[in-house]
Specification:
The chain is mainly alpha-helical. It has two domains: 2-52, no CATH class; 54-83, no CATH class. Helix content is 52%, strand content 7%. The protein has three helices and two strands. A two-stranded antiparallel sheet has the order 1-2. The longest helix has 22 residues, at 2-23. The termini are far apart.
């Protein structure tokens, strides 16, 4: 029973690492997720230390924050101009 609970926790943390890596634009998100499920005690602290920063920007149209390098604001749909 303990083994099943341990694997379920590792799987949930692996899914979180995968989603976090995708959101931060990591090209190796799947590798981080698999490593986390396989060796949680090593990969999770390593990911938390070296993960790239989450880039947030402010839309000039609706004045709401958005993540990533998108071409259109996900809140109001206004075309975003990169400086």
């Amino acid at each position: 029973m303990e083994l099943v609970v341990g694997f379920a926790i590792a799987l949930l943390v692996g899914v979180w690492v995968y989603n976090d890596a995708q959101k931060r634009g990591s090209a190796s998100a799947l590798g981080w997720a698999i490593g986390t499920v396989g060796l949680l005690i090593v990969f999770l602290p390593l990911w938390l230390i070296i993960r790239p920063p989450l880039v947030t920007s402010l839309c000039a149209g609706c004045e709401k924050y958005y993540h990533g390098g998108v071409s259109f604001c996900p809140n109001c749909g206004q075309r975003l101009v990169r400086l």
